[in-house]
């Protein structure tokens, strides 16, 4: 039975969060960031189940109380459920420490537990790296479990379900991820590992593209994303005075030159660059419209209280996903910790839950 990583728009059982708590860097921002989690939870539970990792029983009790008193409308009480599991965690970035779940032709699910090393040992991550092993032991989880001795974060890869994987050299060829494989920065070795584990056929590399304030070494999910019908939506910078102008224009040229397995190019849908956002210390924050989450029938789309730019971005994403409801979510609180909507979530495809 051959497994492959489905695209994010494949039907989903659930979305996974790892809830922020007082022992994380979110402590000063909890009152501002929890309403964002609640709003995303509300939208998810209308359409599918929600899996929440809770650091301890106190956090679990708190999460259940929050979601039970926040006018959450669960779409189908028979199939949409809120699951909370007590598993210790360092931080909240489920996209990068969550399970990467494959499916096969029989629609059985296999969750791969790659190594998470805190984006190249920048941060303590031992608890986050152990989440998947504990999660996949829960009776409610139907997916099989497989540990993979390879450092890989979900935010570092994009797939289209047609054999293509999109990523950046700055992340996947970085010696801080897989030093044994990357001692000579071997693209061929990384490509072999990715294709073998994820069931892809062709790795598409981007040499250029970054966001100020991003400490993931240029995760692809902040820059360019696959959409149905051979489409890629990506961040475009038209302001020559912006520090991103040169890099993002070079990235755009690379995207225009990409060819699929049949030798054809991709349809490209540009997203505007948000107006620069800064924290109280004057650091630029990695605001990006590419960091959206696809769920069943809807796109949860990050906005940043920029009326004109947000409106343009919403119009553009509708071109890439014309059959989906586009739901704007204010993500200004999220980027205070240098990530956005897609970064805090991990989709769990059909077959993951029992």
TrEMBL record:
Lineage summary: Bacteria, Pseudomonadati, Pseudomonadota, Gammaproteobacteria, Oceanospirillales
Designated name of the protein: Agmatine deiminase
A Gene Ontology BP annotation from the UniProt entry: putrescine biosynthetic process
MF terms in GO: agmatine deiminase activity; protein-arginine deiminase activity
Keywords recorded for this protein, A-Z: Hydrolase
Gene3D superfamilies in UniProt: L-arginine/glycine Amidinotransferase, Chain A
Top-level lineage group: Bacteria
A Pfam family the protein falls into: PAD_porph
Keyword Hydrolase included in the entry's annotation: yes
Keyword Hydrolase: yes
């Amino acid at each position: 039975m051959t497994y492959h990583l489905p695209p994010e728009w494949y039907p989903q059982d659930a979305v996974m969060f790892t809830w922020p708590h007082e022992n994380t860097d979110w402590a000063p921002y909890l009152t501002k960031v929890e309403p964002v989690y609640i709003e995303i939870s509300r939208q998810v539970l209308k359409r599918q189940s929600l899996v929440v990792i809770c650091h301890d029983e106190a956090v679990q009790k708190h999460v259940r109380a929050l979601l039970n008193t926040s006018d959450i409308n669960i779409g189908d009480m028979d199939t949409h459920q809120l699951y909370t599991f007590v598993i210790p965690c360092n931080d909240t970035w489920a996209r990068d420490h969550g399970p990467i779940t494959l499916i096969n032709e029989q629609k059985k699910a296999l969750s791969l537990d790659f190594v998470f090393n805190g984006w190249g040992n920048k941060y303590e991550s031992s608890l986050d790296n152990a989440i998947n092993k504990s999660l996949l032991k829960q009776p409610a989880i139907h997916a099989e479990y497989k540990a993979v001795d390879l450092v890989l974060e979900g935010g570092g890869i994009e797939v289209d379900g047609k054999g293509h994987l999109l990523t950046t050299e700055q992340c996947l060829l970085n010696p801080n991820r897989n030093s044994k494989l990357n001692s000579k920065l071997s693209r061929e070795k990384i490509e072999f590992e990715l294709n073998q584990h994820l069931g892809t056929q062709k790795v598409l590399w981007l040499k250029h593209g970054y966001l100020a304030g991003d400490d993931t070494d240029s995760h692809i999910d902040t820059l360019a994303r696959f959409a149905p019908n051979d489409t890629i939506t990506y961040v475009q910078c038209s302001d020559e005075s912006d520090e991103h102008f040169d890099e993002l224009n070079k990235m755009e040229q690379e995207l225009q030159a990409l060819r699929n397995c049949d030798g054809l190019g991709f349809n490209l849908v540009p997203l505007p660059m948000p107006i620069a956002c800064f924290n109280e210390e004057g650091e630029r924050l990695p605001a990006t419209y590419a960091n959206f989450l696809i769920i069943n029938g809807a796109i949860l789309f990050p906005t940043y209280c920029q009326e004109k730019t947000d409106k343009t971005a919403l119009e553009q994403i509708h071109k890439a996903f014309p059959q989906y409801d586009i739901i704007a979510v204010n993500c200004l609180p999220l980027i205070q910790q240098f990530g956005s909507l897609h970064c805090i979530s991990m989709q769990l495809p059909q077959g993951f839950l029992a």
